[in-house]
Amino acid sequence: MGESVAGNEAAPGLVLLSRQGPPRLLGPLLLEYLGLEALPPTLVTHGIEGLMAAAGFQRREDGRGVWEREGRTLILGEELLEDGGRLVWVVPVPWSGERVAERVRYLSLASHDLRGSLANIRSYAALLLNGRVPLEPKAQRGLETILRNADRSLAFAQDFFDSSRAELGALAVERERQPLLPILDAAVERMRAAASAASVALVLDPLPDLPDVEVDAGRIQHAVEAFAHHHLVRAQPGEELHVRAARLGHQVRVEVRRDGAPVPPEDISAVFQCEARAFRERKLEDPLRVFLARQEVEAHGGQVGAQTDEGGSTLFLTLPVPRARELAHPAGWQA
To answer: How confident is the model at residue 6 (pLDDT cuts 50, 70, 90)?
Structure first.
């Protein structure tokens, strides 16, 4: 329930590449997006590279899954299936390459101006709170409030601009092959103070032996923290949050589980719907944070989902286990 396939509003064009047998189209959209009348024979031997080459598309240098042809832009990805097959998806981007680059520069300017002002406010508040200047209790509480809200606004601004870049297929993702445990441990430590303030126990469950993953550690850590934030907003004192992971076939699944009151099915199904939740809740902070987590996971070729039962609710993400031929990419390779 609540799983996503691609972070784009357009319906994806799909083709199933099984381990045995010919490729199988799942609807007509893929051929329509590519401008082809039939699947090329090179798809069997050359995979998605052969598919895009046959359609005349070239990979954009600054985006792993972004392909362009004569002003037409597509985002392409694949999901590893438990039986060893692959589900390839393609969605159109309503922006030309030049327009995307122009929009990204615009977002960078806006981010610099907004974050620069907030950073100055934060720096001066922190300077006055360093203990060198005597402060009356009321002034100190006021400065602490300024500092706290500046940190919150900086985090929100970062999420907003990252999500906007992700919608353009321009989210920076620095992948490196690494173990998952340090990433989850860092996320739990970052959230421990917030959990303690809410009187909620936050536990990193013992992990089984897991394969290394090829990820941007900061992006995956942010996604796990976003899931924990979402639960903490709704948790009651005395409840527990558990972070756990397990291997499922060609994927690793990471869960953030809240043991407590169940969530209504209609709420759990809308967890990753940013605009709908923002309008309904009249707040953007949590919907945006969780939506960005979805975009970050999907940038790695993974999925997100949400489940509820009588004992509580779970937000989860899946990450593909790198295949042998993929492990040779340099650490700074961008998706």
So the answer is: very low
pTM, 2 dp:
0.71
Percentage with pLDDT > 70 across the chain: 88
DSSP for 295-322, written as a single string: HHHHHTT-EEEEEEETTEEEEEEEEEPP
Q: Tokens standing for 264?
A: 């209504």
pLDDT surpasses 60 at 334: no
pLDDT digits (tens, 9 = 90+) for 150-204: 999 999 999 999 999 888 778 889 999 999 999 999 999 999 999 999 999 999 9
Q: CB atoms < 10 A from the CB of 47, how many? A: 15
Q: Is the dihedral of CA 155, 161, 165, 166 positive or negative?
A: positive
CA-based nearest residue to 333, from 216, 213, 164? 216
Which DSSP letter does residue 263 get? P
Q: Which of 107, 220, 84 is nearest to 165 (CA)?
A: 107
Output the six-digit token pair for 98: 């030049």
- Confidence category of residue 94, pLDDT binned at 50, 70, 90: low
Q: What angle do CA 22, 23, 29 make, to 5 degrees?
A: 150
Mean pLDDT estimate for the chain = 86
Cα–Cα distance between 154 and 116 in angstroms, integer?
9
Distance CA 48, CA 65 (A): 10
Distances 11 to 32, 37, 51, 92, 287 between C-alpha atoms, Å: 12, 19, 19, 9, 22
- Is residue 266 within 8 Å of residue 250, measured between CB atoms? no
The DSSP H or E segment spanning 232 is helix 217-234
